Hints:
Keywords: Heme, Iron, Metal-binding. The protein has helices at residues 2-25, 27-38, 58-65, 93-103, 109-114, 116-128, 139-154, 161-177, 180-188, 191-201, 203-206, 222-245, 253-259, 270-300, 303-316, 330-342, 374-378, 393-397, 418-435, and strands at 41-44, 52-55, 72-75, 136-137, 348-353, 357-359, 362-364, 369-373, 436-440, 448-451, 454-457, 462-467.
Amino acid sequence: xxxxxxxxxxxxxxxxxxxxxxxxxxxxxxxxxxxxxxxxxxxxxxxxxxxxxxxxxxxxxxxxxxxxxxxxxxxxxxxxxxxxxxxxxxxxxxxxxxxxxxxxxxxxxxxxxxxxxxxxxxxxxxxxxxxxxxxxxxxxxxxxxxxxxxxxxxxxxxxxxxxxxxxxxxxxxxxxxxxxxxxxxxxxxxxxxxxxxxxxxxxxxxxxxxxxxxxxxxxxxxxxxxxxxxxxxxxxxxxxxxxxxxxxxxxxxxxxxxxxxxxxxxxxxxxxxxxxxxxxxxxxxxxxxxxxxxxxxxxxxxxxxxxxxxxxxxxxxxxxxxxxxxxxxxxxxxxxxxxxxxxxxxxxxxxxxxxxxxxxxxxxxxxxxxxxxxxxxxxxxxxxxxxxxxxxxxxxxxxxxxxxxxxxxxxxxxxxxxxxxxxxxxxxxxxxxxxxxxxxxxxxxxxxxxxxxxxxxxxxxxxxxxxxx
Length: 469
Ligand code: HEM
């Protein structure tokens, strides 16, 4: 009896840390185990965040995903640590609806198509520099492409010294904000409090002169805050520059945001512009580069599918590569959708109950957090035949419903940048596979690893490439 109690207490205290370690090492396998052990509404305790119920029952997932503002609020699961509370991704109800309305036009199909030539130019330039004859992690060049695309298409920053500084700062900020010092801070502060601390400490660098050299502090936490402050200082310059040039003469997302007005005629405040801009970089950078790597991982292991992708690109782009025509690359689109089904970079999307609810025979209190498991639903044996097989054809025959295939989340909070990411992925993959032969590293067994809020291929997906003559 005594030993039982001791074991229970030990388990109670260390399970959340053990879960965190296991989920970081192999997130997909962890979720498979969780469903096997605890069923389709499984309690998950993770160190540093509240307990969540992981749901993988298709009908319940559909109900919650299509739910409304008065039933649910979004639970951002730690995103509060690195974006401002004003950012769209942290807002709910009317506040969210209004901002979404304002930002949607910048990300609709027409706006996204206009970014195609810039995406193509950047993709080709980065692909020109791929190391040849050596094995290298593909994630590096994919991150390089996505960050450059964001800074050019969203912020309208012209390439040059300020572009390079902003690029390096954002990358360093994102690397460090998930590092040990922020994790340590997270043990004593909530993510919102930790972010408020960073913002307070960032004031010094926020006032730094954009043209003067910038040296961040070496002190823990302060060095992250300094980078955040400097990012905001450089964003301020970009906002001023856009206003001086006239937002009506530019077509980047920042210009569209400066032109947009709320229903009462108000423009976005400076504070809000900063919050949305930083959120867009964070939302679009790691997500797109990891999804690109997973698509490459699938295609290089399925030569017949890859051959079909190449043949389709050759046929559609007969008169020369036209980025607007990537929308006609249906098989490539299906291959991307299928790779995102097998390997979603976000293992789940979470919602918080606004009122008590009965789900799968359990009475749940208001405030309960339910994580809809994208990964488990997208591999659910009752929804997909051969759920673990890569079969792009299944996406061609019939578009799956939004409640069974939702790598971009769903409902009122569905990813704002989904069309942007899909367009960019088609351009990058079409260029990569028609310009290069790509081989996986035979000595590396690829599995998923969770870093921060995303799941990517281990080792950054080591590959070798050779130009196609
Ligand atoms: C393949 C790439 C991407 C994936 C897999 C992805 C995935 C997601 C997911 C799962 C969500 C949460 C949705 C929910 O809770 O239902 C989300 C939200 C969001 N994403 Fe993405 N994303 C990608 C690319 C992008 C890009 C390129 C941008 C912007 C440039 C972006 C901006 C956002 C924003 C702003 C939100 C919050 C939307 C809202 O609250 O209304 N994402 N994304």
